[in-house]
Amino acid sequence: MALHPPQNVNKMIFAPADDKTGAQAEQYTKGSLDESQLDPSSPFNQFNTWFTLAQKSSVHQPETVCLSTASLPSGRVSARMVYLKELDDRGFVIYSNWGTSQKAKDVESNKWASLTFWWREMERQVRVEGQVERLTPEESQVYFDTRIRGSRIGAWASRQSQVLNGREELEDWVGDIEKKFEGQEKIPVPEFWGGLRVKPEMVEFWQGRPSRLHDRFQYRKEGESWKIVRLSP
To answer: Which residues are catalytic?
Structure first.
């Protein structure tokens, strides 16, 4: 495989820039980050501090996160945007279909996953890497009960990532589930649906800085404690 692509490629996009800076990429100028500003013992406390500030700073849906997984033995990576729904001192929890989705196939063969948060309004990024575990049905039911009825019906009806023969097929599945739970307000969580906890081995906090000389600090798991290191941008 060639290390460099052919030079006669017709580039469809090259070094895009915003309207304010013309030909140059936008500079990050909204803050800086020093180790003295970090919680010395827990990346969970530090994340909660940043997340709370993001909510107060009108960051659009700060719970939005990119979940990346990889299938073995191929090593093929897949990523998708999901919502963070829970955080405690065990890890970061998202909810999804674990019966038919690509992420389900990936974590069946490879328990490692990553999360990436991007808060544009604050020029901040948080990266999480760790192994995953399924929540119990009892734990998942607690969150499932908070969803609107349509989303609970949808969780039962959708055969996530399977090929559809038109929108009508999906609507037929939804209709079948509506009939199944007609008149029932309490709907049980499907056995194939529920929470996934990413238990971090690494959490990185990234603050944008001018000239791409960003501030980066990683919490690295060492036994039962965490070590903080500064990384070169």
So the answer is: 212
